[in-house]
From TrEMBL:
<dbReference type="Pfam" id="PF09335">
    <property type="entry name" value="VTT_dom"/>
</dbReference>
<dbReference type="GO" id="GO:0000045">
    <property type="term" value="P:autophagosome assembly"/>
</dbReference>
<keyword id="KW-0812">Transmembrane</keyword>
<keyword id="KW-0472">Membrane</keyword>
<keyword id="KW-1133">Transmembrane helix</keyword>
<feature type="transmembrane region" description="Helical">
    <location>
        <begin position="254"/>
        <end position="271"/>
    </location>
</feature>
<feature type="transmembrane region" description="Helical">
    <location>
        <begin position="43"/>
        <end position="64"/>
    </location>
</feature>
<dbReference type="GO" id="GO:0016020">
    <property type="term" value="C:membrane"/>
</dbReference>
<dbReference type="InterPro" id="IPR045014">
    <property type="entry name" value="TM41A/B"/>
</dbReference>
<feature type="transmembrane region" description="Helical">
    <location>
        <begin position="213"/>
        <end position="233"/>
    </location>
</feature>
<dbReference type="InterPro" id="IPR032816">
    <property type="entry name" value="VTT_dom"/>
</dbReference>
<feature type="domain" description="VTT">
    <location>
        <begin position="119"/>
        <end position="238"/>
    </location>
</feature>
<feature type="transmembrane region" description="Helical">
    <location>
        <begin position="186"/>
        <end position="207"/>
    </location>
</feature>
<protein>
    <recommendedName>
        <fullName>VTT domain-containing protein</fullName>
    </recommendedName>
</protein>
Length: 289
């Protein structure tokens, strides 16, 4: 959201300078002014939603019994491995008595950060792995990351059209063309985008409703396509005390396992496409006259 605000301010300042200098803004500048006027209104509504949701998360943390974590977690998200391990130990120790409360706050915070594209969800995925282990942690992170992404999809559907069009006009146009070319198989395309670093996840979340990607394809593609990255983070969280460097989150062994998980996630789509190809290629059998 801050990126949007900064870009809008820069553009408005540019148009204001042109007006003060006596130069008549060209049509593109006038169109840009109207876009940014709409973007400013959407931005205010988005900030309002952020404040309300943030207040809910804040009061959830305040409701934790014997909540002594807030001061000790003041450096969240952690900036070093030492801080990460320290915070992990604090949360694990506290969760021995208050696991339900800790998980509720973790889920709310994760969804909040994912909804408004706030960095730091990797740390929460690590914490989920530390608290629950790999199978349960992966299931939880997959669920809440998908909910958060769908929330971002919804916010963008309501407020993001002008913002995205103003910030990413070229990229959004290219994405629209790519989506239009793959209308018959959007699920595979979304999974592919999630598995690869071609487009940032934030852009995919914001742009998908604008280019008319159905929510069903978006949600299922997010669940399946994000499994490898979620697995890597949760698995690393379950072994957090063994890590000597944050680079070990992505060592060769873990990357290989993550790639294998990605292949497994793609299998249903590949099998469906094969079945569709076989059906389409089968010649009709003519009856004897």
């Amino acid at each position: 959201m801050s990126v949007y605000a900064e870009a809008a301010t820069v553009k408005l300042d540019q148009i204001r300078r042109e007006s003060l200098s006596g130069r008549h803004p060209d049509p593109s500048s006038s169109a840009a002014f109207r876009i940014w006027k709409e973007a400013k209104r959407s931005l205010c509504l988005g900030v309002g939603l952020l404040v309300v949701f943030g207040a809910v998360v804040f009061f959830c943390f305040l409701s934790l019994p014997e909540a002594q974590l807030s001061g000790k977690l003041s450096t969240f998200p952690p900036r070093s491995l030492e801080q990460l391990v320290y915070q992990r130990d604090l949360v694990v120790q506290y969760s021995e008595k208050h696991l339900a409360g800790v998980l509720s706050c973790l889920c709310l915070l994760y969804i909040f950060m994912q909804t408004f594209a706030i960095p730091g969800t990797l740390t929460l995925s690590l914490m989920a792995g530390a608290l629950l282990g790999v199978p349960k942690g992966l299931a939880l992170v997959s669920a809440i990351s998908t909910v958060g992404s769908c929330n971002c999809y919804g916010v963008s559907l309501l407020l993001g059209t002008q913002l995205a069009g103003a910030i990413w006009p070229a990229r959004l146009g290219h994405f629209r063309k790519e989506v239009d070319k793959r209308r018959t198989d959007l699920l595979s395309y979304i999974i592919f985008l999630r598995l690869t670093p071609i487009l940032p996840n934030t852009f995919i979340n914001v742009a998908s409703p604008i280019v008319n990607v159905p929510l069903s394809s978006f949600a299922i593609g997010t669940v399946l396509g994000c499994i490898p990255n979620n697995f890597l983070a949760v698995n690393a969280g379950s072994k957090l005390k063994e890590l000597r460097s944050l680079n070990e989150l992505y060592d060769v062994k873990l990357m290989t396992i993550g790639a294998a998980v990605g292949v497994v996630a793609m299998l249903p789509i590949w099998l469906r496409r094969q079945d569709t190809s076989d059906t389409a290629g089968a010649a009709p059998i003519e009856k004897d006259s």
